[in-house]
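#onboarding

Welcome to the new folks! Below is a worked example of what a typical request in this channel looks like: someone posts a single protein sequence, and someone else replies with the predicted structure as tokens. Don't worry about understanding the tokens yet, we'll cover that in week two.

Example request:
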Amino acid sequence: MLNIADTLHRWCREARPFALATVVDVRGSAPLPVGTSVAVNEDGNAVGSMSGGCVEGAVYELCQQVLHDRGAPQRAWFGYSDDDAFAVGLTCGGELHVLVQRVDPATRPHLAAALNEVAEGRPAAVAQVVKGPEELLGGTLYVDAAGGIHHGPLTGALRREVGARAWALLRAGHTARAEVGGDADTCPERLSVLVHVHASRPRMLIFGAVDFAAALSQAGRFLGYRVTVCDARPVFATAARFPHADEVVVDWPHRYLERTEVDARTAVCVLTHDAKFDIPLLRLALDLPVGYVGAMGSRRTHDERLRLLSEAGVTEEQLTRLRSPIGLDLGARTPEETAISITAEIVAHTNQGTGLPLSLLSGPIHRDRALEPKVPLSLQRQLTARPVSMRPPGPAGPGSGR
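Example response:
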């Protein structure tokens, strides 16, 4: 629902009831992820999309029915149908489980408060009961950035458990379903709760005020990162050179990293390929709970970097986290191409993708992170036959210095 938070917030301020249709489960390939919503108000105005057009008409009709009948929430499955070219279905071959419910803002002030936080750009999580007893189905609970639980239909231990799950997902910046209840202490019946998360922007820390950093800061901002460029040289680290960065910092890289806030979604990109900057910086970065650490440089630079890091006390386990040379092998040459190479690796790493062409893989394109893609046996043999190394084989890649 947070994909249409601005409109829902306005309808809540105007005390306008609306029907909310939410994707609560996805199987196979589907255009949009779990948590995506469509809403329809009493005037018939609709906002949002959940299938790129495949099932919008049917969802709209369900919303109008639930809104005007004032009945219980309804569930609907939409899947692919090849029997009837005009049947309601997903041409992509996936399946969507949709929950449609009527929302009266007057009875849910906590939802209006959550939508206000999202509209203002602040972190918030809304837990929505998508499976369970009828009296709880569709119920919502709001958790703020400090972990405060705001009123909803859940009470007692169940409320505390759902609130704790929602806060954990908010800190991780990840919308997901959580299974709770099923015991005497919380709720005798098992509940499935979809936690909608609007987190603060993840951080991209770029060290080295070089041309590659200018292109990477633009690509990082396009992907939604809050971008910082840091360099110890004031003549290079200027806002004018990096207009797409949210901040430009003049400081020694490791000293800045020591005092800045990072989390599991933070990407650290080291573009200096200068040992006096790289080694103390990478030694610290590899010891922090950040999501990605990459460093630019040639194969020779990388080998020397590994030797110096080992001498500085960095363990083999920590070194396995280092992506160096940074980026995927796209044959990148220009700063702009290199930025795409680096961000492609970050996206693949974040989403546990293979980085391989989709044309070489089988199985769903959009898959649960827990599911492994189906890699052809011939390709598996090619990959497993490669010698174990801290670096991928092939060309030197971006920033090789060659």
